[in-house]
Amino acid sequence: MTTELTYTNKLHAGSALPEISTRLLSGESVTLGKPNNGADWQLVVVYRGRHCPLCTKYLNQIEGYKDELLATGVDLIAVSGDSKAQLESHLEQLDVSFPLAYGLTVEQMKTLGLYISDPRSAQETDHPFAEPGLFVVNSEGTIQVIDISNNPFVRPELQALVNGLGWIRNPDNNYPIRGMHK
Length: 182
What we know:
The chain has helices at residues 53-63, 66-71, 84-90, 106-111, 158-169, and strands at 21-24, 29-31, 41-46, 74-79, 100-102, 116-117, 129-130, 133-137, 143-148. By secondary structure, the protein is an alpha+beta fold. It has a domain at 39-155: Glutaredoxin. It is globular, with a radius of gyration of 16 Å. The termini are far apart. Residues 11-167 form the Thioredoxin domain. It holds the Pfam family AhpC-TSA. This is Peroxiredoxin-like family protein.
């Protein structure tokens, strides 16, 4: 059996987050990596979509860390490739107050270096979707922390992530972007 190798372009820590715009339910256009709420960094969480119960659980867990993130200067947004209608119906299962964006295109997913999957059936969803990704973008628009997974079972543990961002943001620690060796 011969296996054909496929390569994808992955973003690297220390590189600029590509300019990706999508929409909030209000219809407002939002650019990923551009913080709000007085923060100068942004945590961008890419999730698979409404069909993924692990994503629903993770998003609801993140809500519990929203204030702690904001206290360290890190704003928060989550985005998927779901349609507006899919996001609206997903809200019934979500208890979050941070912005949720929709409509991430396959081309935008590729630009972010995400793994992309096709649905297993029409009951799952009706479009290709991004597997989980997480980008922490600093005040210069540079990727400070990156985590990309090819399945929904592997994601950063949230308390460790929040504690780590607090450590990184503390100027006394002078902590550089890690993983920069080429």
